[in-house]
Amino acid sequence: MGTMEVESARLSECLFAAGACVHVERGDLPTIHYCLTGSGLIIVDGETVIELVPHMLVVTPANTSIEIVAGGSPFGRSRSGPGSIKKSIFVPGSVHPYEIGEGEASLALVCGCFHAVYGPGLDLFASLASPIVEAFDAYDQLDQVMSYAMVELATHEIGGGPMASALFKLVLLTLLRRCLTSSNHWVERFSLLTDPPIAHAFAEMASRPAADFSVQSLCRSVGLSRSAFMARFTAAFGESAMSVLRRLRMRHAANLLAANALSIEQVALQAGYQSRSSFTRTFRQHYGTVPSDYRSEAKRVLVAYETEDSGAQTD
Fold it and tell me: Are both 46 and 172 inside the same structural domain?
């Protein structure tokens, strides 16, 4: 779990009046919803209905539409009626809470989207097919952690982004710990975390992507036979160890290229490739572009971001 990182997170507090609802359309990232107070429903893709109670945590897959209905509203309320809101208005990360509907709030949620990876290569929630629903309590203090993360995201001070990601990571780690004790079916998605030898092998590859790994060396390092290792690794990741290693190396190379501190030949070596041509060919297959063009685009995006950020601070 120590190799998990949160690369981005946008969170907002949403306050719903009784009977109010919000419709969030499909997005590229999974969404997270934590119930602070009150009750209501989350309806995923118009089919799966999840009852919200305080300290309930819900993670919904990417590319799913979501409707959130505060308590007091009959099921099936018109989405175009009073109190509804479209995704174009709902942008997680606002410094002020979103107030939905009229009257006193009967439901308070922390809502947002995020991207989390295990090591530098595995998107933990990319293949999530159905919602994760887990009940916590006040003792877990997730409401406080969520609040701190939102404050850091909203202040735009130096280090706020990394601090918010670190806080949000605590939330996800608390959720993933449930893999060890929960009987809910969603824990099967994170079987890797309950298979120490396979997790150890992955952590080795993630920390040293340039090393000369082979299936045989990985088997020896974790004390498994070749057949057992291959079967358990594929069950955890959905692909072979060498395929995962290649993705780890390409992700590492992409980060080095974006940092713009090493030559492409040096990046190739750091990614475990002795030949620049072999590295370039594999990189193109993975990212659809050659390393030099990837570096140029990363620089362009960074300049654009810094320009926009400095303009925002001036305003």
Answer: yes
